[in-house]
Write a structure and sequence with these properties.
There is one protein chain. The protein has 526 residues and is α/β, with parallel strands linked by helices. The protein folds into 2 domains: 295 residues, ATPase, nucleotide binding domain (Nucleotidyltransferase, domain 5, 2-Layer Sandwich); 123 residues, Nucleotidyltransferase, domain 5 (2-Layer Sandwich). The chain is 37% helix and 18% strand. It starts with a strand and ends with a helix. The model has no long low-confidence stretch (mean pLDDT 96).
Length: 526
């Protein structure tokens, strides 16, 4: 099988492109655009417009298109035969709402992003209108969270009615990018697909259908603004003639259905068979796995998503991960290497000192107004060594507390994101999750998109390559950082996991174990 295949990842802070060469089984090209640095006229910080109200996180969708065009322009000047790109697939940050009017202009100049939590009131209203949390989960397989898209739509209806009324199409980020690639206002294809659509909390991933009850709870005419949901494993059309001419692509270059960044992150980390778990260690933290049958968490803490292969992707997301770590490094003026050396000189369990790292609210558990809690610290304990280990163990325990509801016993955890390069993070995840961990090299979602493009194109061209066979040469595990759970830390971390849960429950008014007794038990064995 020959040809080049491109993956675009339109993420929160940057836009990346990865091109793979199947004949050579190599990654032929990688490039990225950082919105803050490369497109400063959009006035963003970490990809979101500066100076908005607390809890509001938004971007101008035109910034994403300009980033794609900048990448395409660089590609044209590079030593790569872009005319041989047979298919392009787009990975997009999930949940972001893009509204277009009937002429193809933005009906709202900015898109609310996944980390916007200004829609808490809309989440409450939607849940009440449908009949409570259990009814909501029955309708869409998920609860309503501020990150999801349905409350963003209701927020626009309640607070910006003119924008809502003018909207003819409501898109997610990757669907909007696909519409642009296939022609935009001059014939762009307006469709969605199951993976990303699962994250709207408006569409049922088990029934694979829109929820009429949730739609009616927002606006009975909303269905007229929602594109059709087509399969993930097909292309939706070809690149527009204008883009083909401008950037040197073949007029026959096809556009894949695309999907959300988590769906393509799974492919890009080799997570497309049962028993593999991907943990992404970025500003937020996610954990997800491949399963063949749908899973719906009765508490709604584990998101019920479809994947991009026709199967399912239960997913956990916590709002806080690298944020606390990065702030600590800045406060003490230390490097990643120094942090690892400090951790090496401290003991698992931290002598009963524990951090609940809810620095910017929290998504799991669903606490938009949460704040951090330092437990078991004496006045003399707020020093570098104790705080470094508290940050590390607190963030990993916070992720594990949600993960315990995941319907999988992992054979291996594949790590991605910036923190995956840290031996301390790799080992502590292995210890607390009690599973082998290994970082995955590469560009994650952008690579997964490129692999998916090759798989879909091959299927439509009559080939019979499996996704695993196509992906194999491109999934590179960092064996030098593979970690096994340390037997010597097992007892301390089993107690600490219980302590974290007990303290979390206590803060939320849930009856559970006594955190003070568990702290004493942890001190005793430490």
């Amino acid at each position: 099988m020959e040809g080049l295949f491109a993956g675009l990842d339109v993420s929160t802070q940057s836009c990346k492109i990865v091109i793979i060469d199947l004949a050579e089984q190599t990654t032929a090209y990688i490039d990225s655009v950082n919105y803050d640095e490369d497109l400063p006229h959009y006035n963003t910080s970490e990809g979101a417009v500066r100076g908005l109200e607390e809890g509001v996180s938004e971007s101008d969708p035109r910034m994403w298109i300009e980033a794609v065009e900048l990448l395409f322009g660089r590609l044209k000047e590079a030593d790569i035969k872009q005319e041989q790109v047979r298919c392009i697939s787009v990975s997009g940050q999930q949940h972001g709402l893009v509204a277009l009017d009937k002429e193809g202009n933005l009906a709202r100049n900015r898109s609310k992003l996944w980390n916007d939590y200004s829609t808490a009131e809309e989440c409450r209203l939607l849940t009440e209108r449908v009949g409570g949390m259990e009814k909501m989960i029955e309708e869409v397989g998920n609860t309503q969270r501020t990150g999801y898209t349905a409350p963003k739509i209701l927020h626009m209806l309640r607070h910006e009615r003119d924008s809502y009324s003018n909207a003819a199409i409501l898109f997610l980020v990757h669907n909007f990018t696909n519409w642009y690639l296939t022609g935009a206002e001059k014939g762009g294809v307006a469709v969605m697909e199951p993976g990303d659509t699962s994250g709207m909390a408006l569409w049922n991933p088990v029934k694979r259908a829109w929820s009429s009850k949730v739609i009616e709870a927002i606006d009975p005419t909303l269905s007229e603004k929602l594109p059709a949901v087509e399969p993930s494993d097909k292309t939706i059309g070809v690149i527009s003639p204008a883009l083909a001419e401008k950037y040197g692509f073949s007029h026959e270059c096809r556009i894949d259905a695309g999907s959300g960044d988590n769906m393509y992150g799974a492919i890009g980390t080799g997570n497309f068979e049962p028993g593999i778990v991907t943990v992404s260690l970025g500003t937020s933290g996610t954990a997800y796995t491949f399963i063949e049958e749908p899973y719906v968490d009765p508490t709604g803490e584990i998101a019920s998503f479809c994947d991009s292969t026709g199967h399912y992707l239960p997913l956990l997301c916590v709002s806080n991960m690298a944020n606390g770590y990065n702030a600590l490094l800045e406060k003490f003026g230390i490097t990643h290497t120094v942090f690892d050396s400090i951790i090496a000189g401290t003991k698992a369990g931290n002598g009963g000192k524990l951090l609940i790292p809810w620095y910017e609210g929290e998504r799991t558990p669903d606490l938009p107004l949460a704040s951090p809690v330092y437990f078991g610290f004496g006045l003399e304990d707020f020093e570098k060594e104790s705080l470094c280990r508290a940050i590390l163990e607190g963030h990993v325990n916070n992720l594990y507390a949600g993960f315990r509801r995941m319907p999988v016993r992992p054979k291996a955890i594949h790590l991605t994101g910036g923190l995956a390069s840290s031996p301390s993070w790799c080992q502590t995840i292995a210890d607390i999750f009690e599973a082998e961990t290994v970082p995955v090299q590469g560009e994650g979602a952008a690579l997964g998109a490129a692999i998916h493009a090759a798989w879909v194109w091959n299927k439509e061209s009559g080939g019979n390559y499996s996704l695993k066979a196509l992906a194999g040469p491109f999934i590179v595990l960092d064996e030098s950082r593979r970690k096994e759970p340390s037997p010597g830390n097992r007892e301390a971390y089993r107690i600490q996991r219980r302590l974290f849960r007990a303290l979390s429950d206590s803060l939320r008014g849930i009856e559970g174990e006594d955190p003070f007794s568990l702290r004493n038990e942890l001190i005793r064995i430490s």
